Amino acid sequence: MDQPWVYIVLFGLVFIVYAKIMPKSSAEKGQQSPSIHEIEQTMDHFASELEEQNRVLLQQLAGMKQDYELQASKLDARVEKLEAEQGTLQQEYMKLNVAYEELEQKSLRQTDLTSAPQFVNGTNLQNAIDTNEASLEEQQPEPSSVSMKGRYTELFALYEQGKSTESIAKKLNMTKGEVNLIIQLAKQEEKLHAQ
Question: How many domains does the chain have?
Fold first, then answer.
């Protein structure tokens, strides 16, 4: 009885015997097979249930679509706002750079004017140049007071600890775009000061 065909033959025989007995027992009880009318009613009921389920599903899909469109429009507005903020921050950064360069040039001119009469009468011109350069280095304003790292110390402390921009943004109640923008501007600022 290890062969599967034996099971199939036995199952077939049981099915045939059951089929022979069934019509006799139902005829004895006086039961009739379901009429066409009952089958139609069952099919109509099934079709109406399917229509109801489809209607509910369509309503859910329409609601999901509206939610998606609403979220997409909010995200678009937020991106536009961040782009505008980035533009204003870049303009502000450029203005600060221009002001810094102007201040540096003014301090150079002032030190040249104040130190020039003292050394015109002197004999050692190289000493005058060295002293002038040293005074310029001392008089240069510290960029850290207006630098991005100075303004956002907590952000850069978290960034230097290796935190992701998402976790920094959550901790400081900022958007991820703002955090990325501030970090990029600080890197640009460092490059400019390195030159």
Answer: 1
